[in-house]
């Protein structure tokens, strides 16, 4: 791990217009992510987790006002032009969205959707090089029969397979920063474990810094190095994954831990 953070967010405020009022959904948020580190942001629905990720990616809609600082490798994202941020998105930083069926185009084959990212950021590549890379990416995310899968449409794949395709798209250009917004929420337990194992493997192989957003502390225990507990737009606790479960400090964190399902062997 290097001495300089890959991502540094400082005093981030994201405000949305609501009628004549302006409501801060993220309010004074500060955290950092080092290369090769997996940082989990955990909190209940409405705590501001997804707004944080969209702020970093520059994907919030126009009725949002953002202030503070978001530094990626020392570059201030909030003062970058839209063109400069588009050059970074997909190449240097990528995002895996919660529901692949709403993110994948139902009218396009899988190979077309993965190839699109490669074409945008590798304009000198030939069609054959892109086609080969598409198959390589599907193999990387453990999709069986990648040549056949590449020709299918999203509705012809299972939920777990679609999520693997989303991961393939996100890692197509080997980004240094990957933001995963609840990537396992809609999956069964077995598929969820497979996706988490895949993300950990990619993290180790490529040294990718990952921001993993979830409301599920059992997932946090499985994947994170460090954990940020978020409530009402603020970080209320930050700890290593071991310290968070061994000696939580904030009452809200204690409440989340008590809400985790347990294996009750009493009858």
TrEMBL record:
Coiled coil: none annotated. Residues 7-257 form the ABC transporter domain. GO terms for biological process: peptide transport. SMART domains: AAA (SM00382). It is found in: Cell membrane. CDD domains: ABC_NikE_OppD_transporters. The keyword ATP-binding applies. Belongs to the ABC transporter superfamily. Its main location: membrane. The keyword Nucleotide-binding applies. This is Oligopeptide ABC transporter ATP-binding protein. It comes from the Bacteria. PANTHER family: DIPEPTIDE TRANSPORT ATP-BINDING PROTEIN DPPD, OLIGOPEPTIDE TRANSPORT ATP-BINDING PROTEIN APPD. One of its GO terms (molecular function) is ATP binding. It is a peripheral membrane protein. GO terms for cellular component: plasma membrane. Keywords: ATP-binding, Cell membrane, Membrane, Nucleotide-binding, Transport.
């Amino acid at each position: 791990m290097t001495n300089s953070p890959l991502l540094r967010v400082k005093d981030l405020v994201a405000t949305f217009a609501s009628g004549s009022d302006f409501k801060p959904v993220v309010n004074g948020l500060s955290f950092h992510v080092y290369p090769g580190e997996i940082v989990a942001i955990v909190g209940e629905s409405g705590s501001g987790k997804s707004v944080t990720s969209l702020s970093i990616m520059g994907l919030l809609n126009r009725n949002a006002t953002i202030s503070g600082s978001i530094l990626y490798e020392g570059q201030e994202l909030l003062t970058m032009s839209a063109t400069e941020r588009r050059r970074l998105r997909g190449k240097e930083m990528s995002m895996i969205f919660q529901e692949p069926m709403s993110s994948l185009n139902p009218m396009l084959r899988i190979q077309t959707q993965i190839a699109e990212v490669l074409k945008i950021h590798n304009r000198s590549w030939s069609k054959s090089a892109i086609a080969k890379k598409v198959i390589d990416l599907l193999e990387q995310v453990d999709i069986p029969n990648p040549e056949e899968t590449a020709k299918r449409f999203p509705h012809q794949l299972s939920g777990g397979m679609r999520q693997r395709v989303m991961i393939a798209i996100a890692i197509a250009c080997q980004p240094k920063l990957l933001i995963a917004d609840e990537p396992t929420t809609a999956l069964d337990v077995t598929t969820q474990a497979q996706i988490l194992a895949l993300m950990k493997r990619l993290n180790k192989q490529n040294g990718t810094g990952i921001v993993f957003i979830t409301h599920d502390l059992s997932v946090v225990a499985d994947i994170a190095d460090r954990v940020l507990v978020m409530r009402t737009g603020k970080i209320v606790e930050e700890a290593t994954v071991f310290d968070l479960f061994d000696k939580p400090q904030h009452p809200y964190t204690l409440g989340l831990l008590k809400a985790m399902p347990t294996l009750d062997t009493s009858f």
